[in-house]
Amino acid sequence: MSVDSCTGNDTETETGIGTGIEYVEDVSPGSGALPPRARYASSDAASLSLNGTWRFRLSPTAEAGSFAREGYDAGGWAEIAVPGHWVLQGHGSPVYTNHRYPFPVDPPRVPTENPTGDHLRVFDLPADWPCGDGDGAVLRFDGVESCARVWLNGTELGTFKGSRLDHEFTVGPLLKVTGNVLAVRVHQWSAGSYLEDQDQWWLPGIFRDVTLLHRPADGVRDFFVHASYDHRAGTGTLRVDSDVAGRVTVPELGIDVPTGEPVTVPVRPWSAEVPRLYDGVLATGGERVPLRIGFRTVEVADGLIKVNGRPVLFKGVNRHEWHPERGRALDLETMRADVLLMKRHNINAVRTSHYPPHPAFLDLCDEYGLWVLDECDLETHGFTELAWRDNPVDDDRWTPALLDRAARMVERDKNHPSIVLWSLGNEAGGGRGLTAMAEWIRARDPSRPLHYEGDRDCRDTDVYARMYAGHAEVERIGRHLDGGPLRRRRLPFLMCEYAHAMGNGPGGLADYQRLFASYQRLQGGFVWEWIDHGIAHPKLGFAYGGDFGEELHDGNFVCDGLVLPDRRPSPGLVEYKKVLEPVGITGDGTAGAVRVTNGYDAADLSALAFSWSYQVDGETLASGPLPVPALAPGESADVKLPAPPAEAPDGEAHWLIRAALAADTAWAERGHVVAWGQFPVSDRTPPRVPATARLRVSDGVLTLGPGTFDARTGALTAVGDVAVTGLRLDVWRAPTDNDEGAAWQDAPRCGPRWRGLGLHRMRHRLDAVEAGGDALTVRTRVAPAGRELGLSTVYRWTADGDRLRLAVRVVPEGDWTLPLPRLGIRLGLPAARADRVRWFGGGPGEAYPDSKAAAMTGRWESTVAGLQTPYVRPQENGARIDVRWAELGGLRIEGDPLFFLTARRWTTEQLDAATHRTALVPGDTIWVNLDHAQHGLGSQSCGPGPLPHHQLRVEPSEFAFVFAPDPGAA
Ligand code: GAL
After folding, report:
1. What is the separation of C-alpha 139 from the centre of its chain, rounded to a whole number of angstroms?
2. Which single residue of 434, 506, 817, 867 has CA 20 to 30 Å from 356?
């Protein structure tokens, strides 16, 4: 019996420990937890965070020794950070599988080898903790993977499953002023694991907050904020239903009403674009809870998802929670970083794939403005290996667990204006359990439509959702030509996943966006996915599946995000930002005007300041503000441009129009560019090099203008005093993840076929060196061993006094049935000369044929290192598109026509062979690729390959480069 009991009650001695672990494999959601209720960020009731350093012991099986009694000495145990995953803190290691269960499938049984983490924390109550009569307290767990059993001061509170959902236990009578012992046993595997087969790392632990909440007598329990918006009347109707009666006040709106009573007043609506929140208070006899109220009405009407009467175009991403060191244990700043990055990249929607996120993330979505599709913590994808036999969602024994998950999501998150759709889960097949969830959710919250991609006929859902459908099929759906059941044909369409952003890519974003813009039924989608789940690793840089010796794993399929694991935006995100621009700026550069279209769903253009600049050969000659009316959503205007500057020199001229934030916002500063358009005014004059220089031969060396060649092979050895090595035709690129494609796809995959053909080991046969007069002609045939097809390649060199011109003519021979990875030349330059790279062309980032919207024509500068995109698994990257000229390694190179520039301190072969970034060590040579063409990227690592017009077809080609010593090189 404890003498310092907070409530005066006796504490009990430990019970239950070690007496059975049936709960681990029990299909029920658990026992002892309180019913779910609304989550609120704060109140005036006391609370105590139990995050911090806990004692920790790992056992190999679920039957670990007892530890929950008071006075248990855990002094010899390790320490662990809570929130955290033990496998990321030196105890065991993470496992990555996409959809396969990493244990034998025998539901609900799990392996005997079931890593079990005992967590122990001793805490005192703060001095001001209220200990009055009738005061209670609850202990709340925000996320524990995958199954927990909890004791406080030796008394068992219960068990629970549902890793990314809140669980609360009444603890008031057990609390003591000092020396409270909280013991939590966490099992990595449980029956719940069968419901949590999301494509991600398996990461056990107490990975979200643990909090003790004081519950005052007459305190708030559950409440439901209903805040709708009538777009015709411009009014909002607020009704707050509360289990415990009280009053609701919203001073700014003059609202002061009892709970349960509706009130209608003029308001500004909430939208992702203008996230207007009103501060209110729910006050019961014992507690005051701040409310952040957003008025908005979501409906499916006329076959469209409408918010506040207008259809919404979802420009979304799928967001898993991820931190490269802490896994799914996210701090507020990381969550905010995600939201800010999304807002700054024109993203307006998030699918919380595939579980409800940390609740604070939803607060941020309310505040900064993002449409949210909140998804339940449910996926049973591994049952696809059994042709979906024994799928828990079609087995009534599991239905209580499914309903528990649905209720815990909806009850916890229902008061967020940002949430506009509920999702039953992901890739769980079909079955009665899902229907039961849908019915429960509809009854509890009829105000939000339902999503579930696995429901192809839309029996239980209100939107037709698909993942990875190709452009042609999406267009058919947009045209209502996709057939299907009548109910589905009347529903709006969402791509809940598309554009697989694994490695270099995705390609084809602009093509999708054009479809979304063209067909009303297509209400946008969510790129897969937001972030690479690479784990920071001392030797590998970022680790992926297999790096921890997993017996079953799916490699780097876990790294398929728009941001790298450290949240550095990948070129795919920069492309997505451009493609999503909420303002259309179009024109042809010579018309004296541009057309500006407001593509927002709800906001006018008053928050943006437009400007123009006039550029010649990439240099800005003049610039100024461009007055644009505050167009309403959907409106367009033709906006006159000023006259081009009178004194503009000859050259390639462009207008560049920018729309930037006119003032600081919560998510970016004034001047942040939201949209831009660039229009050519005059064309480029290609470089002309009259063949005035004569060939000279002496001592086995040929010279032509600034070029020096080996007289026997015709190989270029120097330009001026810059040594050149290995110049030759190149068609190989280190296949991207999207080139490699997904093994399960029916469509032919380029990467394996390229390698099968031998494009990575082309042989160069020298047929003739013809030196005479003003030209050196080198005839070759480039072909892989064992094949009869090849590329007849002729290099023709000419020069004027200072510049050397290479014209390359490529004629395919044989039966080519594949596109090429790339077509151009490669050459080596000494790295010692200069690391600086300057170019006039597309930039500043990398671009490929089907991912080039974000490439702005201009003068750019970088270093060779800076040109690289550090994809977690090394692969082709870093090409700069539409390059007119470039200066690097002591040379100036001009293209005729424009070319792709790639430069790196390792060869393509080294890039291809590397499995992790750290394997790439800079050598003494800068390997430069000057490409006439590149194959598109597509997103075949899970979706379609590049569209036909982005494929690099094998056909006769001619292209030229002009080389000269770079006058600016030191
Ligand atoms: C989808 C799935 C995602 C992810 C993606 C591929 O089928 O819903 O969770 O696995 O494919 O990266």
Report:
1. 34
2. 506
